[in-house]
């Protein structure tokens, strides 16, 4: 049973930080590229960051320098560390395994005063 489960979302003030977690199960986690995506109401779902099995990372221009994607292959977990958060970062954040198009259920991130 291939499954991804996000956690760590919540309400944070502009300029604040949040760390999202995505727990993976049911597959050989270490061998797969993983990614984070987000979708705000009325917007397209967009790629935020990705990380390969070899720890090569890629970021959307809008988050580069502020967000960091990482993985723990022992815990079978991928993380998204979000710093210097802006209201424009408000969205539902989804974890994804691109191979097989596997999505998590999403976690809400709200950046507001």
Describe this structure in words.
- The chain has 113 residues and is mostly beta strands.
- The chain contains no helices and eleven strands.
- The strands form two sheets. Strands 2, 4, 5, 6, 9, 10 and 11 form a seven-stranded mixed beta sheet that branches. Strands 1-3-8-7 form a four-stranded antiparallel beta sheet, with no helix packed on it.
- The protein is globular.
- 30% of the residues are buried.
- The model has no long low-confidence stretch (mean pLDDT 97).
Question: Can you give keywords for this protein?
Answer:
mainly beta; 113 residues; globular; seven-stranded mixed β-sheet
What's a quick, concise take on this entry?
This protein is mainly β. The chain has strands at residues 3-7, 10-12, 18-25, 34-39, 46-51, 57-59, 67-72, 77-82, 91-97, 102-103, 107-111.
Instruction: Summarize the helix and strand pattern as letters.
Output: EEEEEEEEEEE
Number of helices: 0
Structural class by helix and strand composition: mainly beta
**Coarse shape:** globular
Largest sheet: 7 strands, mixed
In total, the number of strands is 11
From the alpha carbons, calculate the radius of gyration and give it in angstroms.
Answer: 13 Å
First and last CA, distance: 40 Å
Percent in strands: over 45%
Which percent range fits the helix content? under 10%
């Amino acid at each position: 049973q291939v499954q991804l489960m996000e956690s760590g979302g919540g309400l944070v003030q502009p300029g604040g930080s949040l760390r999202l977690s995505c727990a993976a199960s049911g597959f050989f986690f270490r061998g797969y590229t993983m990614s984070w995506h987000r979708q705000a109401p009325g917007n397209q779902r967009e790629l935020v960051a990705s990380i390969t099995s070899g720890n090569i990372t890629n970021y959307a221009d809008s988050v580069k320098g502020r967000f960091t994607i990482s993985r723990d292959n022992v815990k079978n977990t991928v993380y998204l560390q979000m710093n210097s958060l802006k209201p424009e970062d408000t969205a539902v954040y989804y974890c994804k395994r691109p191979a097989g198009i596997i999505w998590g259920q999403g976690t809400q991130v709200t950046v507001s005063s």
